[in-house]
Design brief:
Order of helices and strands: EEEHEHEHHEEHEEEEHEEH
Distance between the termini: 30 Å
Structural class: alpha/beta
Strand order of the largest sheet: 5-4-1-6-11-8-12
Radius of gyration: 16 Å
Number of strands: 13
Shape: globular
C-alpha cells in the first residue's frame, strides 16, 4: 500500500537544550546523517508519496538541506501549530485518503515501521492505526500511553502505567483534523475522538525503536544503532 506521508519536523526541540537552539532537531546528526535523513530513508523504503514535511524552527536550514529533492513538499508554519494543527494545515497536500505520519525524532532497526502499518491497516474499520512498542522494552521515560483491547486503543487514563507506548508512526485520516476547532492543537485531540468512535487501533511493532528527544537519548541511540 502506497500512502502519502507527513513527517513532523517543525518543533523547537527545547528538550535538546543547546543542541537545538541554533538548529532544527530534525537536522541533528546521528550515525553520520541527520535525524531527518533516517526518517526519509524509512519513508522512501516504504514507497510513501508524496512526502510532506512541516517546518518552523530554523526552517531555512531544512529548506536548504532538502533543496533539489523532487519528492518533498514543505508545509511551513509561521506559527507553531503542534502535531494536530500541523496535520490540519497540511491536509490539502496529503490528498483525500489516509496517510502515514512519522515523527522525525526517532530511529529504527528491523522491519520498516511504515510497511508494518500498511500491511495491517484496514480502512473499512480503522480511522487510525498507531504503531506501539511495549512500555517495558522502551528506553523512553514515561508510564506508557495505551492499552490494547481486541486491537483497539484505550487510554491509560488515571492508571499508573499502561503496557504500550506510541512510537511516533501511524496511519490516520487527515480529514478528521478538520473537525477540530482552532489552528494549533495536539494530535491527542484527534485520537480521543477516534477512540470514542471505536475506530482507533494499535499495532505492536516488530524490530527496534528509539525515541531521540534529549541529548542523552541522542547519544544512547547512536550507540544502539552502531551495535550489531
Amino acid at each position: 500500500m502506497s500512502l502519502p506521508l507527513m513527517i513532523f519536523a517543525a518543533g523547537r526541540g527545547t528538550r535538546m537544550g543547546a543542541l537545538g537552539a541554533n538548529h532544527p532537531k530534525a537536522l541533528l546528526p546521528i550515525a553520520g546523517r541527520p535525524l531527518l535523513g533516517h526518517a526519509l530513508g524509512v519513508a522512501r523504503s516504504a514507497q510513501a508519496s508524496p512526502i510532506v514535511i512541516n517546518t518552523h524552527h530554523h526552517a531555512e536550514q531544512i529548506v536548504a538541506h532538502l533543496k533539489g529533492a523532487p519528492d518533498i513538499i514543505l508545509s511551513h508554519e509561521p506559527d507553531l501549530l503542534e502535531t494536530g494543527g500541523g496535520l490540519k494545515a497540511a491536509r490539502s497536500l496529503l490528498g483525500p485518503g489516509p496517510a502515514f505520519t512519522l515523527n522525525a525524532d526517532a530511529v529504527w532497526k528491523g522491519p520498516n515501521p511504515l510497511a508494518q502499518l500498511a500491511a495491517a491497516f484496514a480502512p473499512a474499520e480503522m480511522d487510525a492505526l498507531l504503531l506501539l512498542a511495549p512500555t517495558s522494552a522502551a528506553l523512553a521515560s514515561g508510564p506508557g500511553d495505551f492499552f490494547l483491547e481486541g486491537g483497539k486503543l484505550r487510554r491509560r487514563g488515571a492508571g499508573a502505567t499502561a503496557p504500550f507506548i506510541y512510537t511516533g508512526a501511524q496511519i490516520i485520516r487527515p480529514d478528521l483534523a478538520e473537525q477540530v476547532q482552532g489552528r494549533s492543537f495536539s494530535m491527542n485531540i484527534i485520537w480521543d475522538q477516534i477512540i470514542a468512535s471505536g475506530r482507533a487501533y494499535g499495532l505492536v511493532m516488530q524490530g527496534g525503536w528509539r525515541d531521540v528527544g534529549t541529548p542523552e537519548a541522542l547519544a544512547a541511540a547512536e550507540t544502539w544503532l552502531a551495535a550489531p
